[in-house]
Amino acid sequence: MDAVKVGRLKHVIQLQYPANTIDSMGQPVKTWYNYKRVWASIMPTSGKELMSSRTTFGGSVELSPNNTRFYVRYDVGITTLYKVVWRGKDYNIRYVNNVMADDRLLELVCDTGASNE
Predict the structure, then answer these.
(1) Where are the domains of the chain?
(2) How far apart (Å, rounded) are the C-alpha atoms in residues 58 and 30?
(3) Which long-range CB contacts under 8 A does 34-38 form with residues at least 24 apart?
(4) What contacts 74, CB < 8 A, 6 or more positions away?
(5) Rg (Cα) of the chain, in Å, rounded?
(6) Distance between CA 68 and CA 94 in Å, rounded?
(7) From the DSSP assignment, how many helices (H) and strands (E) are in the chain?
């Protein structure tokens, strides 16, 4: 995906960020707060991508069948501490890529495995 095309950003996703709060028993708990709703293009990981993932990411991010890529307009605030909520399912952001390094589009490589801690 080499350019932000409005027609491709056809899904609305919710970005959330974590904060530690105190529950009624005085114990710390992680609470998720809405950051913003944004338009996104969504691409599940293909079998071919799974085969070449170690080369592509240099081993730092391992792709699995549970990986999904979300493409959103550039936002400097989005980090791997955030998560995506789409169709009632949580996707943990594992990697944030500023596509073409031109501050126009972010690729969020996400998975549905264990939550971000």
Answers:
(1) 11-111
(2) 31
(3) 35/77, 35/78, 35/82, 36/75, 37/12, 37/13, 38/12, 38/13, 38/72, 38/73, 38/75
(4) 98, 103, 104, 105, 106
(5) 15
(6) 10
(7) 1, 6
CATH topology of domain 11-111: Thrombin, subunit H (2.40.10)
Type of residue numbered 59:
G
pLDDT digits (tens, 9 = 90+) for 21-35: 999 999 999 999 999
Is 14 within 8 Å of 84 (Cβ atoms)?
yes
pLDDT at 77 over 80: yes
Specify the 3-state DSSP secondary structure of 87. Answer: coil
pLDDT category of residue 4 using cuts at 50, 70 and 90: low
Tokens of 43: 């691409």
Q: How confident is the model at residue 50 (pLDDT cuts 50, 70, 90)?
A: very low
Dihedral sign for Cα atoms in the order 28, 80, 6, 47: negative
Whether the model clears a pTM of 0.85, i.e. scores above it, the answer is no
